[in-house]
Design a protein that fits this description.
Blueprint (H helix, E strand, L loop, with lengths): L2 E12 L2 E12 L3 E5 L6 H9 L6 E6 L2 E2 L14 E4 L11 H11 L4 H14 L15 H12 L6 E5 L7 H18 L2 E6 L10 E6 L2 E6 L1 H7 L5 H11 L2
Parallel strand pairs: 3-8, 3-9, 6-7, 7-8
Antiparallel strand pairs: 1-2, 1-4, 4-5, 9-10
The structure holds adenosine-5'-triphosphate.
GO molecular function: ATP binding; ATP hydrolysis activity
Keywords: ATP-binding, Nucleotide-binding
InterPro entries: AAA+_ATPase (IPR003593), ABC_transporter-like_ATP-bd (IPR003439), ABC_transporter-like_CS (IPR017871), P-loop_NTPase (IPR027417)
């Protein structure tokens, strides 16, 4: 299986505080990989290092065969491979949904004509026809999350990194989001790296790592982890993993 993300012995220190401690993992192309953990476990720091927003103290990251440290300098369009949706949505609330999508298309050097074609596809895929010309300021949190996600995939990235994607969504929007990424991973072969502290939603992942205190304490498929810890749910397994290691 092709490993599209390879993280090796990654460390992040802020002053004297070590927030990510020698973590290593690989992500198989086309899979949904969940990075789980409580608040402050280090999940956001890991993904910010992967997308190049934060510089690691040590260790290496390879994205689709490219050393992430050299990604900006080796002539490869590194950023075109990755879509990112952070906890703060990258939306301009004075703009409409269409204008936000076009703005993100422009950031990825997609011209107006191709941008319009891609926006039409996203209107269909995300059922946006009723809100496409509405200002994002007037949308609900769940709708804003949907638009932020559409913006993150406008350039058809191979990898999409999403940080706590459903924090502000209702149950129905959560379900729709997870079904959408499951279908994108299966049909378009997109690889997803998703951080969450929602253990019910983590069941949608093909593979998960459980982080605590900056280290990965357990990793495996959701069913493999449940069976290893003799637990009926990931919530129960999570409690045992974190308790076992304290
Ligand atoms: N720029 C920074 N300077 C100093 N410490 C930081 C910085 N960014 C994060 N931290 C610390 O690193 C630790 C891990 O934070 P991080 O945001 O990665 O956790 P998380 O698992 O994503 O939590 P959450 O679910 O709340 O987003 C926390 O103790 C946080 O205070």
């Amino acid at each position: 299986m092709n490993k599209i993300i390879i993280v090796d012995d990654l460390v992040k220190e802020y002053g004297s505080k070590t927030v990510v401690r020698n973590i290593s993992f690989n992500i198989t192309s086309g899979s949904i990989y969940g990075l789980l953990g409580a608040n402050g476990a280090g999940k956001t720091t890991v993904i910010k290092m992967i997308i190049g927003l934060v510089q690691p103290t040590s260790g290496s990251i390879y994205i689709d065969g490219i050393n992430a440290k050299l990604g900006k300098n080796n002539g490869t369009d590194f950023k075109s491979k990755i879509g990112y949706m952070g906890q703060q949505f990258n939306l301009y609330n004075q703009l409409t949904v269409r204008q936000n999508l076009m703005l993100h298309a422009g950031c990825h050097y997609i011209g107006r004509r191709n941008g319009n074609i891609r926006i039409e596809e996203l209107i269909t895929d995300f059922q946006l026809s009723d809100i496409i010309d509405v200002s994002t300021a007037k949308l609900s949190a769940g709708q804003q999350q949907k638009i932020a996600f559409a913006c993150s995939i406008i350039h058809r990235p191979k990898i999409v990194v999403v940080d706590e994607p459903t924090n502000q969504s209702d149950q129905n929007s959560k379900r729709i989001f997870w079904e959408q990424i499951t279908s994108l991973s299966k049909q378009s072969g997109i690889t997803f790296l998703v951080t969450t502290h929602n253990l019910f939603e983590a069941e949608y992942c093909n593979y998960i790592s459980i982080m605590d205190g900056g280290i990965i304490k357990e990793a495996g498929t959701p069913s493999g982890i449940k069976s290893k810890y003799n637990a009926d749910s990931l919530t129960e397994a999570f409690r045992r993993i974190v308790k076992n290691n304290k």
